[in-house]
Amino acid sequence: MLSEKPLRIRQSISFIVVLLAGACLFFLNRKSTIDWSEDNAAFILQAKATASGHLQSEYKFVYDDNCIETGPAIYPWGFPLVLSAVYPFAGKDIYSYIILMHVILVLVLLLLCFYMRKFFAPAVAALLVLVFAFNPETVIEKNDIMSDLFCLFLILIFLYMYENIHSRKITLWLSAFLLMLIVNTRVLGFCLVPAIFLYEMFADSANRRQRLLRSTLLVFLAMIFSIGFSFFISGSSVYRYVGYFIQYIKFEWSMLDVISNGVGYLVYALDYFIPKHETWQWAIIPIRIFTLLSVLTGVWQHITLRKYNVYSFFIPVYLIVIIIFPFHYIVERYFFPVAPFMLLMMLTGWEYVLQKLRLNKNICIAFLCVALAGYYPNLKYLAYHKAEPDGPQTIEATEAWHAVNQFTNETDTVCTHYPRALIFFTNRFGRTLCNNEAFTPTYILNDNSNRKVYDQMETTRYSLLWKNERFELYKLMMRN
């Protein structure tokens, strides 16, 4: 008992440190606005539909099959379901949702600290979590109303619960529900399914067949739950969202994209672990090479020592899938859910090297402290760079929303580059502005900074109703 008491004290201190760090993050790079990403508005609109007692698919977005690059007709319902609990109090107040994102981040940090303690000493686990928490990409991520953080939160809970799936029946049902929720939060969470079967196939177990059957039952239950919940919450299923990705891949995919994605993710991963710094530019390349070798060493350790876990297979499956996907312009969002596990592999590699060199493993603490210190210049910039992002809450955009409300009715459909933002701020029907010869829009809200699509249309048939320095609102004068 004497040996357990100091350990519990150290574990408690590690939790307190992580909790305080999460509180500090709230004041770092704090924003109250969002950018033009359509995902932000779509999630809140679907949350509004749920809070209003409607299906999430009923939010005035008119989907155009010719404009699949602007996103699916409906996003997975898991994250909007969480936002729907906040919507009655928050409404259109973006800052309230950003506070919710910060709360989710703190919960993720606490779960990570709990999870990492299984592999490292409490002090090392806490420092590793801080390296993830104060990474500039994490600091930026907490200001976006995106499903990435919530998905990581669910994955961490699932990984913990899955370890007890073969001992208690209630855990099987809860794990199936969690898996369903993960897939319906981010479709890429489906990568957990092959990871589960790979783990059960390679893990040392005397009752492997029974475990595989139990895992099959888990996936089957998750699928049944998904069909039922999706029907009642969104009026659609995750399979429709998967169909959108398949359609996009047929439209956009090429082997060149795969190569480009692979290089892009490698570069981003190195930037993530070791951010660029002008003063220490001469040391960046060798440090990045060392970091990459550390991650590979950690992976090799898991394979050779058979230290298997579900995440050991989730990481390669997930990375292979995102490299194949032709979505190379949102690298940071797809990399985020596996970032803490990559850090875990890196630290495992460090400990292995130190053990081979017969050095004290506590040197890892020094390495992690150096990594935290390396974030300081970027964090300092984020702390003092107070400019709000270009988005739907700028003065020009706000004027455009007022003009749309003035010149149109709630039953009208307005074509624009940002249909979901338009729906959110004007409550009009929104449709993506693109070159579709089969459809002639009645109203067009054009963004002068994005004229590529609009210039392909016949502008002579439209009269100008309103404009400011950036936006122009047009109405159709005649039809051919």
Mean pLDDT: 82
Rounded radius of gyration (Å): 24 Å
| Proportion of beta-strand residues | 5-15%
- The spatial strand order of the largest sheet comes to 1-3-2-4-6-5
Q: DSSP helix count?
A: 21
Helix-strand string: HHEHHHHHHHHHHHHHHHHHHEHEEEE
Helix and strand content put the structural class at: mainly alpha
Largest sheet: 6 strands, mixed
Features:
single chain; 480 residues; mainly alpha; six-stranded mixed beta sheet; 6 strands; 61% helix; 6% strand; globular
Question: Helix and strand layout, with pairings?
Answer:
Elements (H helix, E strand, L loop, with lengths): L3 H23 L11 H14 L9 E2 L15 H7 L2 H4 L3 H23 L5 H12 L2 H6 L6 H15 L6 H15 L8 H11 L5 H26 L4 H15 L2 H19 L7 H24 L5 H15 L6 H5 L3 H18 L6 H12 L1 H9 L10 H13 L5 E4 L2 H8 L2 E4 L10 E5 L14 E6 L3 E6 L4
Parallel strand pairs: 1-3, 2-3, 2-4
Antiparallel strand pairs: 4-6, 5-6
Helix pairs in contact: 1-5, 1-6, 2-3, 2-21, 5-6, 5-8, 6-18, 8-9, 9-11, 10-11, 10-15, 14-17
Give a short overview.
By secondary structure, this protein is mainly α. It has helices at 4-26, 38-51, 78-84, 87-90, 94-116, 122-133, 136-141, 148-162, 169-183, 192-202, 208-233, 238-252, 255-273, 281-304, 310-324, 331-335, 339-356, 363-374, 376-384, 395-407, 419-426; strands spanning 61-62, 413-416, 429-432, 443-447, 462-467, 471-476.
